[in-house]
Design a protein that fits this description.
The protein is α/β, with parallel strands linked by helices. About 30% of the residues lie in helices and about 15% in strands.
């Protein structure tokens, strides 16, 4: 508590798209209650605060810090360590901080390969001089420093201890509000390390679609066929990660006739979301002929991006050997 008696709140955006910041705004007028309850001491997209301000805080000064984004640069790592020291409760907020999310798919490649593509090889790049970002660049006004990419992207808990996880890309407003309300009302929180703001079952348990015996003879990509809005998407051959994804989102994607992509992470007691989903798929391929099985599997585009879209950086694979 500060001199005004209000708990201190901070939020930080590391390697991610910023959707988690928007997710907080999506609690709408309840945000006014949050702003009234907490004193916001660090939230770069909302208030004018500098890193030096955080460095000046005493350890444990911040009561609650929502950290969204994964650890891709030395700056991300430094801020994670700094905010861990300054925060009583540090929350891995959203899929990037929780599991690495889509930026984690970059772990398929080395840093140099990523830089080559971004600054030389991509179809939209026009860089005839082959210029690359430099960690330090001399300017007349002084040296200009920018963050350096780390060799591999990691979720937040790979560099600091995390008190709680709130999954989702982004977390849904009802879950965000439930977490904030619990803290504001002084409710007893679960043991440290718990996933909060989510369910303990799977997306399939929230899905209203009719399920039958699965017999898959071909995989379909979204956009190439119109799914039946009442029938299980997996029954129709669309890869839906509902069986391997934690509940809590109210099955919003599948209710909108789009397959679940797995952003809430694995259900309890499942160590590897992608492996669980591949196991489920293998059991429903409708053939015993090796050649036919190969044909069916070949109809699945981008297996890594499909099964590990959000969780590669925290999976058993973590990164691909090079």
């Amino acid at each position: 508590m500060g001199e005004n008696g209000k708990p201190k709140f901070a939020m930080y955006w590391a390697a991610g798209c910023g959707g988690c910041e928007i997710g907080v705004l999506d609690i709408q007028e309840a945000l006014l209650d949050v702003a009234d309850f907490f004193e916001i001491v660090f939230w770069p997209v909302a208030i004018d605060a500098k890193y030096k301000d955080v460095e000046a805080f005493e350890d444990g000064y911040i009561d609650l810090c929502l950290f969204n984004g994964s650890i891709r640069s030395d700056e991300n790592r430094h801020m994670a360590q700094l905010l861990r020291a300054k925060s009583k409760i540090l929350v891995a907020f959203g899929s990037c901080a929780h599991e690495g999310c889509i930026p984690g798919l970059g772990n398929q490649y080395g840093t140099e390969a990523l830089m080559d593509y971004a600054y030389s090889l991509s179809p939209s790049t026009e860089n005839p001089q082959g210029l690359r970002p430099q960690a330090v660049y001399e300017m007349p006004e002084g040296d200009l420093e920018i963050p350096t990419l780390l060799d591999v992207l990691t979720p937040l808990d790979a560099v600091v201890n995390v008190d709680y996880y709130v999954p989702g890309c982004p977390p849904q407003p009802p879950q965000i509000l439930a977490v904030m309300t619990a803290i504001m009302q002084g409710a007893e929180l679960p043991p440290p390390g718990s996933v909060i703001g989510a369910g303990v079952k799977t997306v399939c348990d929230e899905c209203p679609r009719e399920r039958k015996e699965k017999k898959i003879r071909e995989f379909k990509r979204p956009g190439t066929a119109q799914p039946n809005p009442n029938e299980c998407l997996l029954d129709q051959g669309f890869i839906c990660l509902g069986p391997a994804t934690r509940s809590g989102c109210d099955a919003l994607c599948v209710k909108a006739n789009a397959p679940c992509r797995g952003c809430y992470g694995a259900p309890p007691n499942v160590e590897d979301q992608g492996a669980r989903m591949m196991s489920a798929i293998a059991s429903v391929i409708d053939s015993s002929d090796p050649e036919e099985i190969e044909r069916i599997i070949a109809s699945l585009d981008d297996p890594l991006g499909t099964f590990y879209r959000f969780s590669l950086a925290k999976s058993s694979l973590r990164r691909l050997a090079r």
